[in-house]
Design a protein that fits this description.
The chain is α/β, with parallel strands linked by helices. It is 51% helix and 10% strand. The longest helix is centred in the C-terminal third of the chain and has 35 residues. It is a multi-pass membrane protein.
Length: 566
């Protein structure tokens, strides 16, 4: 007796095989299923979504924190005692983790779009867990050691918000294809209603979000103030060793209008320039005075300080990844740098008639000049020949005495106070970190004739935001970069921005309606053609996978012979 099994015809679905195979190791047709996803796998989908969201925020944070990478590395140096670029492994792992999780998210969305059961492979579950835990540990670490840097997120959103909104709107509009497909396939009305309401709530939130987006660069271009002055923070430390004559010369070549320096005083009373408490990071004190390498810089005399090389470390550590681009002449000049005195800096400033911001550091308690360091520094400034009106004095110690001796100094505070308090104290300027004031405070200080200088501003986007806000000056480690910013990166009137986001909302709404109508049309058409169950493989993959007839595998009839009883 011969039994005939019906002829089966199927198409190769390489795209679907790759999607289900990579996501859940379901490469074979019989391994795939259109059944509802289990609760356990739904939980893992939520974990994947949460990990993706957290990594998105973490990646955005480090992308915008580029302005302060040097500050972060300096924090690491203070904790470890060794200079390393700690941002490199963080950026590498963040990029790898985000790429991996984003890829899994795309595969999960493809499963949903094609009606396939979600079943994340156990190896991916380990990877998602590792990514989640690593990101959480990173967030906790930053929160403990670099808390102030979280402010970069709301500040940067003033620059990126309008554009991120359009990107989010485009993504939400694209997701309508998947949402509409789910609604069309659903058999329960309650499920359809819940999905549609949730999606429309998100979409409506994105439509009205621009009402809450604020940016100083959304303004009448005619009211834009003049370009902020740029001060060289420790000279031009991205191009030459910080606080050296070569660094200040490089800053002058970038057309800065002022120079900012950290001033300490030697054990024999010579004010000199040094940012750190010790000499280890920026000199070769380990080689010249190995037994004094951890001694405070203020305990060295000027003769000893002049024996130290202050440029060799820059070529060795390459803190800003710029040493490789230096010419041989520049490298030779760098190797010749010594610790710079305040007198040398002031003479240079006097020759070029530019402003100097003096940031003093008090010597240790038992230092010979602990009680007279202000007088010693003040005398050097007065003997330099630099006009008093070009000196920004930032130290609060003995400020009243300083005002009597040098009434022409621009008295500047490092602590934020109200304009009334500053005026009553005879203070005309503020020197603050860029995250310590908002746009309204900047406007208030400007109206009250308080000169506001913000540090450290290295990125064009941040410089542009502060320019739009009306800041009078910024202190930068990258004057060569800001030099290339002749105008704010973007600037638009409120009316123009309103036109853009309303147009984007209308286009998005029209596309979403069109997609829902199209999906329902397909559903009705297939039901009328006799297909009882909506199989997304038949509809969606038919457009994505085009194969010729010769690529169709035809299963031959199986002839099963069974012996007849005799």
């Amino acid at each position: 007796m011969v039994k005939h099994q019906p002829l089966q015809v199927y198409e190769r679905q390489l795209c679907l095989s790759c999607i289900t195979g990579i996501y859940g190791c379901r490469w074979k047709r019989y391994q795939r299923s259109h059944d509802n996803t289990t609760k356990w796998e739904l939980l893992w989908s939520l974990i994947l979504l949460f990990t993706f969201s957290l990594l998105l925020i973490w990646s955005y944070f480090w992308w915008e924190a580029d302005n302060d990478y040097n500050e972060f590395n300096w924090f690491l140096y203070n904790n470890s005692g060794e200079w390393t670029d700690g941002t490199v492994p963080i950026l590498a792992t963040t990029a790898a983790g985000f790429t991996y999780i984003a890829f899994l998210m795309i595969l999960a969305l493809c499963h949903v779009a094609l009606g396939q059961q979600l079943n994340l492979h156990w190896l991916h579950k380990i990877g998602v867990t590792a990514s989640l835990l690593t990101t959480i540990v990173g967030i906790i670490s930053v929160n403990q050691t670099w808390t102030q840097e979280w402010d970069i997120i709301p500040i940067s959103l003033q620059a990126t918000g309008p554009f991120l909104h359009i990107g989010a709107l485009a993504a939400a509009t694209a997701l309508s294809w998947i949402v509409a497909g789910q609604v069309a396939r659903a058999e329960k009305t309650i499920f359809q209603v819940v999905v549609v309401l949730l999606y429309l709530s998100v979409l409506l939130g994105l439509y009205v979000l621009p009402l809450y987006i604020t940016s100083p660069c959304i303004m009448d271009p005619r009211t834009l103030k003049s370009r902020p002055e740029v001060f060289g923070h420790q000279g031009a430390p991205m191009l030459a060793p910080e606080n050296t004559l070569w660094s200040f010369q490089r800053a002058l070549q970038m057309n800065v209008t002022g120079l900012e320096a950290d001033v300490a005083i030697s054990v024999d009373g010579v004010p000199f320039l040094m940012h750190d408490l010790t000499l280890r990071r920026t000199t070769n004190v380990d080689e010249v005075f190995p037994d004094r390498k951890t001694t405070a810089a203020s305990w060295f005399n000027w003769t000893d300080l002049q024996q130290l090389n202050a440029g060799e470390w820059f070529l060795k550590n390459d803190p800003f990844w710029t040493a490789s681009s230096m010419s041989q002449k520049e490298r030779n000049l760098t190797l010749k740098q010594r610790v710079c005195s305040l007198e040398q800096l002031l003479k240079m400033a006097s020759d070029h008639n530019i402003t100097v911001v003096v940031r003093l550091r008090r010597p240790p308690r038992d230092h010979p000049f602990n009680s007279t360091w202000i007088n010693e520094t003040l005398q050097v400034v007065q003997n330099s020949g630099l006009l008093q009106s070009l000196v920004m004095w930032t130290k609060d110690d003995e400020r009243e005495q300083v005002k009597q001796w040098a009434p022409g100094f621009i008295q500047t505070s490092l602590v934020k106070h109200s304009p009334e308090h500053l005026h009553s104290s005879g203070i005309r300027g503020l020197l603050l970190r860029y995250n310590q004031v908002d746009a309204d405070e900047i406007t208030n200080f400007s109206k009250n004739n308080i000169s506001l200088t913000l540090y450290t501003v290295n990125e064009p986007w941040l410089f542009s935001m502060l320019w739009c806000s009306g800041v009078s000056a910024v202190s930068s480690e990258a004057p060569h970069i800001l030099r290339k910013v002749p105008s704010p990166i973007w600037l638009m009137s409120p009316r123009t921005y309103q036109l853009i986001w309303v147009s984007a909302d209308l286009i998005s709404f029209a596309v979403v309606i069109g997609i829902f109508v199209l999906q329902n049309y397909h559903m009705i058409r297939y039901r009328m053609s006799g297909i009882r169950s909506y199989n997304p493989e038949q509809i969606m993959l038919s457009a994505a996978v085009r194969t010729s007839s010769r690529d169709i595998n035809v299963m031959k009839e199986k002839l099963i012979f069974s012996a007849q009883p005799q």
